[in-house]
Every structure is written in C-alpha cells, then in structure tokens.
Amino acid sequence: MKKDQFPLWRRFVSIAQPYFFPAIRGGGFLTLMLMVLLLAFLFGLLFFVVAGMVFVGHSVAPVLTTKIAGGLLSVMTTIFHSGTWMVVAAVLAIPAVVFFLLRHHLRQRRQAWMLLAVVLLLSLSVTGINVAFSYIGNYFTNSLVQKQQDLAYLFITVYFCGFMVGIPIVAFYGYVQNYLGMRWREWMTGTFVDNYFKNRAYYGIETNSEIDNPDQRIMEDIRSFTRTSLTFLLIILGSVMDIISFTGILWSKSVLLVCVVLGYSIVGTILTVLIGRRLVRLNFNQLRYEADFRYSLIHVRDNAESIAFYQGEKPELAHISDRFRNVLKNFGLLIGWQRNLSFFTTAYSYLPVVLPYLVMFPLYFKGKIEYGDMVQANFAFTQVYAALSLIVSQIEQITNFAAGVERLSTFTDAITSSQLEVSGIVSESSDQFALEHMTLMTPNGNRLLLGDLTLHLDKNETLVIVGESGIGKSSLLRAIAGLWTRGEGTVKRPALSDIFFLPQRPYMLIGSLRDQLLYPRLKRESSDEELRQMLKTVQLEALVDRVGGFDVTLDWADVLSLGEQQRLAFARLFLNRPGFAVLDEATSALDMENEARLYEKLKELGIHYISVGHRSSILKYHSRVLELKGQDNWRLLPSGEYQAAIGY
C-alpha cells in the first residue's frame, strides 16, 4: 500500500511517538513493538500471579477453591504439568531482553514507560475482573434456578470479595491514566513551546499567517491530544482483551452467536465510517472558528482604549458578529451530520439487547444449556459487541480527535518549515555594519522592497534611514535582524546578542517594573538605586513611587503613555549596554529635549546605532543618511550634505 493512504495515522505517530521513543528511522515500528511486548510481559506476569493465588488457595482451602474456581484450578494444573508454563515464562523473558537492548533509547523515557506499564497492568486487571464476574454471575444464576441456597450465598460472598478487590484497582486505574496524561501533556507542551521559540519560529508563523491561533493549538489541542490518545489506547486495549476473553466464552456457548456478532459489528462499522467521515473536516473547522471568535473578543479587550477613541464599536461588533456567524453556520452543518449519524447508531445499538437471546432460545428451550449459560452468553455477547463496535460508539470522539491531530500536525510542519534554512539574504558576523548587493522582498515574495543596496559603515559612523512611509525602512531593519531573508545579498553585522532593537512601540512584557527595565536579561543583578538612576536619566524618576515600587505587576501598555514607554525602552537599552542599537522611530513620541538627551546618552555610553525616522530633528545625531526612494532607487549621503540638500 502507498504510504499516504494513512495520513492521519502517520500524523498521530509523528506527534505521539517522541514521548516514548526517539524520532529515529523505524522509531514508529519499534514503539509499537515495545508496546506489544510490554503488554505480553504484563499478561505473563498476571498469569503467574493468578496461578499463584489459585494454588495457594487450593493448598489452604481445597474444598472452597474447588467450589469457586474448580475449572480454573484444573486449567492451571494442566498448564504446569504439560510444560506450557514455559511458553508464558518466555513471554516474560523476551520483552525484558528487548527492553534491555534498547535501554539507551529509553533511558530518558523511563517514567513514561513505567506509568504506561502500570496503566496497562490495571487495564488487564479490570478485564480479568469482568471475566471473573461473568462466571460468578453464571454460577450464581444457576444456583438460584436450582434453588441451591448454600451456593447462592457463597457466590454472593465471592462477588463482594471481588467487588472489594476491584474498587481500588478501578480507582487507581483512572488516577494513573490521568497522571500519565498530565506528564505527557507537560512534555509535549514543553517541546512545542521550545520549538515555537527556537530560531524565532513564532515570528515566521505569525508573518506567514498560514497557521491560525497557535495559542489554542498549544493549550487546548495538546491537552485534548494526550487525554484522548490515552483514552483510545486503553479503550482499544480493553476491546482487544474483551474480544480475546469473551469470544472463547461465546464459542463455548454457541458458534452461531460468534458469527452473528462478528457480521453485525463489521457491517455497522463500515456504514458508520462512510457516514461519519464528513465530521472530521467539520470538527476541524469548528475548532478554528471558535478560536477566531475568541481571539476577536480578546482583541477588543486588548485595544479597548483605541476603539473607544475612534468610536469603533459598530465595526468591531460587525467583525465579531461575522466570526460568530461562521461558528454557528459550521456548527449547524456539524449537528446536522451528527443527527444523520445518530439515526443509524441509535438503531444499531438497540438490536443487540435481544439478539443474543433470540439466538440462544432454541438451545435453552431444548434443554441443551442452563439459564445461567444464557445469561453469561448475553454478557459475553455484549462485551464482544461493544469491543467490535468501537468505531460506531466512539465516532464523534474519533472525528474530534482526528481534527485535533490534523491541527497539531500542521502546526508542527509550520514550526519545522520556519526553522529550515532558506536560501536568500545571508547574514555574516562582523565588527561593523555592511550591506552588499542586497535585494529585499516581502516574506511571501509578492513585492520588491529594495534592489541592489550596498553600504558600509565604519565603527564610528552612525546611520539614519529616511524615506516615505511604506517604502521599506522598517523592512530593512528586519533584514538586518535576520527576520526577513527573502531576497539575495549579504548582511554583515555584529552578533545579534550584541545588538539591541528598539521598535516605535516598545514591547511591554507581563511582569513588574523591574522586569521591564531588565528585559530580556531578567536574571541580571541590578540594585534599586541603579534602576532609579537609570529612570532619572530618561526623565521617569517619579515612576517608581507612582506605581508603588519596582516589584508591582501592572498592565504597562495601559499604565504608561507611548512617550513613557519609549523612554522606559531607552532605560532598558542603557542598562543592557549593548555594543550596537537599532532604533525604529524609537523617539517618535518624545519632545525634542528628551530626544536630544537620549541620543547624547547613547554617544556617552559608546553605543553605535542605526536609526529609522521621519523627523528631521534626528539627522544631526547621525553621520550618514540612507534615503530610500523605492526598489533600486536610493542614495547614501553624509548627514551634513543631506541636510543642506533638503534645506534643514
């Protein structure tokens, strides 16, 4: 078969596998093999535990053990006398050897496998308890029909003993499953977030706009993925064990009943898949539209003041209403298809209530089986039917899960593609700035911004970039920072760690005033006095008392005006003391006096800088001027010559 016939499975494996096994060639197969071997090991372990309990019970109370589990005792005795137990011993030994051979790959994942082993062991135990209860129910029912009072009370006692054993097993089963899901989510979230920030992939994803709502994918989709994956794994495991365990019981009661349940389940599953496959895309779209609607509400909250100034309530309301209509429209289609599916699944689930009785009635009325056998056969039929009808019963959850897997997979692909080396503008380390034959385009390649731009700056030279709005000034700074690489040519610059970028609207992180000043090196040790002195340098000395201290956390983008934010950004720059600074209209909201003071401080600290600006007042703080006029039309002049040319 072609590999791309199972895209959903491959996407699932690529996301789920790394938590359990490294993403190496053949890793998916090895992971599946290890899980099968682990299951076999646990099955062998339970076999010896049960055998030990039976033999101990027989040695302590042989009469009682014979009454309660005479058949099981006989089976165990036969197995050990025939030497078949050695096969079970091999089932224990082979997985242990394989895990030992692969220990180097599993060393960092021991907790994951230990938790998975506990979950699978508890799952097998639950299946075993269900099998035991089916026999207890059979014997109890027969004792009632035959009016054997002593046996009836005995099996009631056995039932309660089994009930007391089962309570902690079931309780811990749910707890360990949730705990494993929590650890898996912790690992996946950490991995996704690390990759999201690595090589500034978050910037590439935001710029290309191909991936909607990455925040939702990291938070909600990962949570749903880990929780649902474990749920399905255990459901599938439980179904397999039910099929293995209860098909034998069914076969012993009626071969016809086995054929009926197999045929009925296969036909139902095929029809359900055909009806329900449309739900995958509808669920995918629903997640997207819901996230878009939520983001539009968050956008209003984050920009409440600007909207109020513009009196933009009507267009914002219209925008939110449009997104909500998308939610409702898609949800209408979704519930319509769910309704159609429900017609079939509801009818499909009712017939098995009476179907096993219809098959077993002739045997019962002819006296070939007892009433307890028919009750046990019905219970076994229900278990096998439920196991084989997994897709039918879980179709809505499966389609939701498939949509989440697709969203995480496309997000992973976007992160990976953002981190790939793309041929274009090349960055080289140097102790000075230089652009050599640079051609710069927008990230999507639709527009040429600059053509064949060449310039060299000596260490002591400063540059200001001027030109009309939208001509490409800020885009040139993005190319210098390595954010935009679409085009060709070479950028020579110091290491990014030695360059500080100040945008027109400074970034105000979530944190305290101390965090604002020290960002991005939050662990840097600075005394309160040093911070106060720096605030005084940028004319913000009253800010500390105004906000209540350095360690108060506020929404700084709302608390501070744009001019205050720009001055705070310069204080941040001065505290970090980089060798170079790139200023993108970083003084646009300041008066001339503050602007002059900040540029003089840059020179005093020996910080070399490149500026972008519209105001002629900043020309005098630079030695050279790069004027952009569009595409390959530009000129580079000494600052004095340019000022004379424009009559400043």
What can you see in these coordinates?
This protein is an alpha/beta fold and 648 residues long. It contains 25 helices and 12 strands. It is elongated, with a radius of gyration of 35 Å.
What tags apply to this protein structure?
single chain, 648 residues, alpha/beta, ABC transporter transmembrane region fold, Rossmann fold, 6-stranded mixed beta sheet, 4-stranded mixed beta sheet, 25 helices, 12 strands, 68% helix, elongated, disordered N terminus
Distance between the termini: 74 Å
Q: Cα-atom Rg, whole angstroms?
A: 35 Å
Tell me the strand order in the biggest sheet: 6-9-10-4-11-12
Specify the CATH architecture of the largest domain: Up-down Bundle
Q: Which regions are unreliable across 5 or more consecutive residues at pLDDT < 50?
A: 1-5
What is the name of the CATH topology of the largest domain?
Answer: ABC transporter transmembrane region fold
Q: How many alpha or pi helices?
A: 25
Biggest sheet record = 6 strands, mixed
Fraction in helix: 55-70%
**Per the principal axes of the C-alpha atoms, what is the gross shape?**
elongated
CATH class of the largest domain: Mainly Alpha
